[in-house]
């Protein structure tokens, strides 16, 4: 697999509107938290520029989903902690650490995609599938999204098994967030297998998009990873070679079929 450092951009990409509309209104409540979760404790000195935060790419993805009358969202790797890393209750099963009315306690370092997608797109009544191989992670996610349970289906299985069961052109928004940030190679290899299945089975709809988290996360860089792509160092080159183009290259990356 050849090494990829620089990206090609499609300027005819997704459209982001002024701070109006339902998606913008709902997601803007969490903008500060999403930016803190992206940037806090990170050293960007080894990157050419500081990427835009998850708030920006979440909003781009959700507005695109809305504009194209999206129906199905799939999240590979569920929301799994009631609170931030390093805080009491992090990655514990005790629901006493879940404070639904206090978002400042939520696990913003992980992005909290399951709930962000449900809240931001509730008006469209999407079907959200969240997948994780760990039963306890799914149970925590059930607690954190209980008020949106009617639109969420929770799956305890591997991401690969789930994708293999998907029909062609059945997913409007696919979110890749499986694996840990170090050691990076097992996660990168898993993500490559996910990418191969989504290409071979053509799971994205005509206007579907792929959103990958943590591409410019700093943890792999601290341990000497030099690809600039983190856990996507194999998947993104593969996708670019198999009919995809990059729409947004930030902390997260958004791709679509050409």
Query: Based on the structure, what is the oligomeric state of the protein chains?
Result: single chain
Largest sheet: 7 strands, mixed
Which residues form runs of ≥5 with pLDDT under 50?
1-13
Described by the principal axes of the CA atoms, the overall outline is globular
* CATH fold descriptor: Rossmann fold
**Beta-sheet strand percentage?**
15-25%
**Percentage of residues in helical conformation:** 25-40%
Distance between the termini: 21 Å
**Looking across the biggest beta sheet, what order are the strands in?**
3-2-1-4-5-7-6
CATH superfamily: Vaccinia Virus protein VP39
The CATH top-level class label: Alpha Beta
Topology, number of strands: 7
Mean pLDDT, as a whole number? 92
Structural class: alpha/beta
Give the radius of gyration. 17 Å
Order of helices and strands: HHHEHEHEHEHEHHEE
Tell me the CATH architecture: 3-Layer(aba) Sandwich
Count up the domains. 1
With helices defined by DSSP (H or I, 4 residues minimum), what is the helix count? Answer: 9
């Amino acid at each position: 697999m050849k090494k990829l450092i620089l990206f090609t951009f499609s300027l005819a990409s997704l459209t982001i509107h002024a701070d109006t509309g339902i998606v913008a209104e709902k997601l803007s409540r969490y903008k500060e938290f999403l930016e803190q979760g992206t940037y806090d404790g990170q050293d960007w000195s080894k990157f050419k520029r500081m990427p835009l935060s998850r708030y920006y790419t979440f909003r781009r993805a959700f507005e695109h989903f809305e504009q194209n009358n999206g129906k199905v969202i799939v999240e590979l790797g569920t929301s799994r902690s009631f609170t931030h890393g390093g805080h009491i209750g992090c990655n514990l099963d005790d629901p006493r650490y879940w404070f639904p009315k206090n978002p400042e306690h939520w696990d913003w370092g992980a992005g909290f995609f399951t709930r962000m997608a449900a809240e931001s797109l509730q008006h469209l009544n999407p079907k959200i599938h969240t997948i994780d191989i760990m039963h306890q992670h799914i149970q925590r996610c059930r607690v954190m999204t209980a008020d949106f349970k009617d639109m969420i289906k929770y799956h305890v299985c591997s991401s690969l098994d789930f994708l293999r069961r998907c029909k062609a052109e059945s997913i409007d928004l696919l979110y890749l967030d499986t694996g840990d940030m170090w050691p990076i190679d097992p996660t990168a290899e898993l993500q490559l297998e996910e990418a191969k299945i989504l290409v071979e089975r053509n799971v994205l709809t005509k206007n579907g998009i792929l959103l990958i988290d943590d591409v410019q996360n700093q943890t792999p860089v601290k341990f000497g990873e030099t690809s600039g792509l983190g856990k996507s160092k194999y998947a993104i080159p593969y996708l670019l070679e198999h009919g995809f183009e990059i729409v947004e290259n930030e902390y997260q990356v958004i791709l679509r079929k050409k």
